[in-house]
Design brief:
The chain is of the alpha/beta class and about 450 residues long. Helix content is about 40%, strand content about 20%. The chain has two domains: about 1-305, Mur-like, catalytic domain (UDP-N-acetylmuramoyl-L-alanine:D-glutamate ligase, 3-Layer(aba) Sandwich); about 315-455, Alpha-Beta Complex (Protein-Tyrosine Phosphatase, Chain A). It has helices at about 1-5, 15-20, 35-40, 60-75, 105-125, 135-150, 185-190, 190-200, 215-230, 275-290, 300-305, 330-345, 365-375, 395-405, 415-430, 445-455; strands at about 50-55, 80, 95, 100, 155, 175, 210, 235, 240-250, 250-255, 260-270, 315-320, 325, 350-355, 380-385, 410-415, 435-440. The strands form three sheets. An eight-stranded mixed beta sheet has the order 4-3-2-5-1-6-7-8, sandwiched between helices. Helix 5 (about 105-125) crosses helix 6 (about 135-150) and helix 8 runs parallel beside helix 9 (about 215-230). Belongs to the folylpolyglutamate synthase family. Its EC number is 6.3.2.17.
């Protein structure tokens, strides 16, 4: 045991992160739960130290989780939030009281659980199975950090899917499902019904299902799961939703009809109809958690919570002269939502898009979406890549874009993100004031690296 501890006795966040990355990569999550169940068992079940609000869906998971967190913090609860992936540093994924876990705690708790993780690794390899993956290990670490804090409630975002996701060792008091669409089809299924079935796996006996408005086939799957387990269920557009909204400086003003109350004149400092719907979903989830859906929340606490909500990399204004926006949309559904929000909330004469996409995505469909959403605007495209080994080559993106109908004179292939960003920003700056702007999009990795380049 001492040798195992010495092998994993990292002293900095960066060293811990390197050890995590040495395990199976994040995008190769194993379809199993037994390994994580064993890990939390030997650690004394830290995943049961606080009640859980579990969030799944295709898009909007992180934004919704952050809004739920903000609302619970406004109610004077100590909140742990686990989301993924991170934009810049791994500690962003594990939040306590609204801030990333501090470096000392991250390293200390990892060191404390390392011998137990080594024990589980040995058991797994002894049975001819892969040791705990990057995501499994990080999930166990998050549970341990939250138990160590301790927190009053955990807001837990799935990595991929739901049924076999590492986070699903937890039994949620409230299961939250954001809109379900096609993504990760190689792992979750080729149809919305199949994907919804995977995500429905987070609904547990004794829990409560709160779902965004869904496509009929996804709604039916979720409804059947809730009825099978005998748990209450509420759907956006039926029992709750956005009653009205108006754009405002820095965001929008909403009136939300919740499960138990109506919440008028709520300022949300995020852009787009999709974020308004995420806010309504978050309110309904908190109503379900705090009062079983039957108790109205205090209006001022709702205003305070949503007014403090942040979602970095989601139509985030990174600079203003010229405007540079960052949006981590990484599938066709997300691209459409971001484009609608951008066109509603901002006015530009010319928009320069800096685009990087990961290979496991539906690259062709994403490019078609970009062309469809922006073809009526004076748009120029800089195709580039993040440092991720999964990033598609910029030349390949540019060639495919032209094949799909992008005009050749607005398509550029730039090998590095810093050069692509510099060129797009300079082009926007050369235009009359307020006429040119830049949007960085296509993947979370490209947006994360752009944030760093822009000093965020």
């Amino acid at each position: 045991m001492s040798a195992a501890f010495e092998e994993t006795s990292a002293g900095t966040v960066e060293e811990v992160y390197a050890e995590l990355l040495a395990r199976a990569p994040e995008h190769r999550m194993a379809p199993r739960l037994d390994a994580v169940r064993r890990a939390v068992e030997v650690l004394g079940e830290p995943h049961r130290a606080a009640p859980v609000v579990h969030v799944t869906g295709t898009n909007g998971k992180t934004s919704t989780a952050r809004m739920i967190e903000a609302l619970l913090l406004a109610h004077d609860l100590r909140v742990g939030r686990y989301t993924s992936p991170h934009l810049a540093r791994v500690t962003e994924r594990i939040s306590v009281d609204g801030a990333p876990v501090d470096d000392e705690t991250f390293v200390r708790v990892h060191g404390e659980i390392a011998p137990y993780l080594a024990l589980v690794d040995a058991e797994l390899t002894g049975r001819g199975q892969p040791r705990l993956t990057y995501f499994e290990t990080l999930t166990v670490l998050a549970f341990a950090v939250f138990a160590d804090a301790p927190v009053d409630v955990v807001v837990l975002e799935v990595g991929i899917g739901g049924s076999w996701d590492a986070t699903n060792v937890a039994d949620a008091a409230v299961s939250v499902v954001t809109p379900v669409d096609l993504d990760h089809t190689d792992m979750l299924g080729d149809t919305v019904e199949e994907i919804a079935a995977e995500k429905a796996g987070i609904v547990k006996p004794g829990g409560f299902l709160v779902s965004a408005a869904q496509q009929p086939e996804a709604a039916q799957v979720l409804l059947e799961r809730a009825r099978e387990l005998g748990v209450p269920f509420r759907f956006g557009g039926i029992e709750f939703g956005v009653e009205s909204r108006a754009t405002a400086v820095g965001g929008q003003v909403l009136t939300i009809q919740g499960l138990a109350g109506r919440y008028p004149e709520v300022l949300l400092p995020l852009f787009g109809a999709h974020q308004a719907e995420n806010a309504a979903l978050a309110v309904a989830a908190v109503e379900a958690f705090l009062g079983g859906g039957d108790r109205e929340l205090d209006l001022e606490l709702v205003r305070t919570g949503l007014g403090a909500a942040e979602s970095p990399g989601r139509l985030e204004v990174a600079r203003t002269a010229p405007p540079v926006l960052l949006d981590a949309a990484h599938n066709p559904h997300g691209l459409r939502a971001a484009a609608a929000a951008l066109q509603e909330s901002f006015t530009f004469g010319k928009l320069n898009l800096v685009v990087g996409i990961l290979a496991e995505k539906d690259v062709e469909e994403m490019l078609r979406g970009l062309l469809d959403e922006y073809e009526e605007h004076a748009t120029e495209f800089w195709f580039t890549r993040s440092s991720s080994p999964r990033a598609v080559d910029p030349e390949e993106l540019a060639e495919l874009a032209v094949d799909l109908g992008f005009p050749e004179d607005v398509v550029h292939a730039v090998p590095t993100l810093d050069d692509a960003l510099a060129e797009a920003v300079q082009d926007a700056a050369d235009r009359p004031e307020f006429d040119g702007a830049v949007l960085v999009t296509g993947s979370i990795t490209v947006v994360g690296e752009a944030r760093t380049l822009l000093g965020l």
